Amino acid sequence: FLPFGLIISFIFVSFVRSWQQRKMSLKDELRKGMLNNEFAVHYQPVYDTVRERCGGAEALLRWNRAGGRSISPDVFITAAESEGLIIPLTLHLFQLLAADVRHWQVPDDFHLGINIAAEHIQHPDFADDIRRLAAQLSPHHVKITLELTERSLISNTSDVMLKLTQLRKEGFLIAIDDFGTGHCSLSYLQTFPLDYLKIDKGFVGTIESAANDTPILDTIISLSKRLKLAMVAEGVSSAEEYQYLKHCGVEYMQGYLYARPMASRQFVYWLQERGE
Ligand code: C2E
Ligand code: CA
Ligand code: CA
Ligand code: CA
Q1: ipTM for the complex?
Q2: Burial of 174 from C-beta contacts in 10 A (0-12 / 13-18 / 19+)
Q3: 56-67: per-residue pLDDT in tens?
Q4: CB of 150 shorter than 6 A to ligand 1
Q5: What pTM, to 2 d.p., does this model score?
Q6: How far is the CA of 34 from the centre of ligand 2 (A)?
Q7: CA separation (Å) from 96 to 39, 45, 136, 137?
Q8: Which ligand does the CA of 260 lie closest to?
Q9: Are 240 and 34 in contact (CB under 8 A)?
Q10: TM spans, by residue (predicted)?
Q11: From the CB of residue 254, how many other CB atoms can be counted at a distance below 10 Å?
């Protein structure tokens, strides 16, 4: 019995070790990636259906790793969050944004959506980090929308609420991202200072698949109307989805139908070509 137990625990320990090492190496890789400039930002235009023009864009981080193998943001953002690197990574993103935006000519009232992690909002320097970024973007007429997930509102509520209220007074817009996919208590929608609700692409996708029956999507839309929040639909990828959402009064659309996320230089051409 004893040797068998020993063998099992040996296997277990070495499994845990190699798992820890792999985890550690991703953390080191993230750090190294920042130092070696392996990150870039892609920008996905957002269509303003009321003014019928580009109303802004969302900044989406990309990691072009040294080996060439790319890794999706869903994976490396989650890793950065669990490894305590999401704040450094977001500050790194801010540097990249400031460098990119210097080359832009944007239409009036252009808003750049930036994804913010829950941990960052709770950090004492959060508001100043955002103000510092704004000081770099505003000479180029780019305004900031903070995209928060429901998770970021739930934790440490009164502190978060104070910060967001103050930032909103200073002209920053606040959006709830991936709405309906988290664990939001609906009462947060009433108490938090919000401007937009981003309808998750999962609900937008039901338009085509569900044959005229989209109860959750319809409920989200009427809820945001009651709360007087503007709506941004994500992942709009067909004319049918566009028509339906437009008919329901959704003001902003983001998705492959209008434009894919693109590198800064491409985005500059894209705006020029459309005369925007
Ligand atoms: P998200 O904030 O919900 O971003 C929208 C995602 O939908 C992006 O995926 C975008 O490329 C994708 N998308 C846009 N239009 C369409 C469409 O028509 N069809 C489909 N199927 N997908 C579409 P991406 O770039 O892979 O990013 C995934 C997630 O990673 C983001 O989801 C966001 O939560 C996170 N993320 C990306 N960049 C950052 C960042 O800089 N900071 C933080 N904290 N999170 C980020
Ligand atoms: Ca987002
Ligand atoms: Ca989203
Ligand atoms: Ca998402």
Answers
A1: 0.97
A2: buried
A3: 999 999 999 877
A4: no
A5: 0.91
A6: 21
A7: 8, 18, 11, 11
A8: 1
A9: no
A10: 1-16
A11: 26
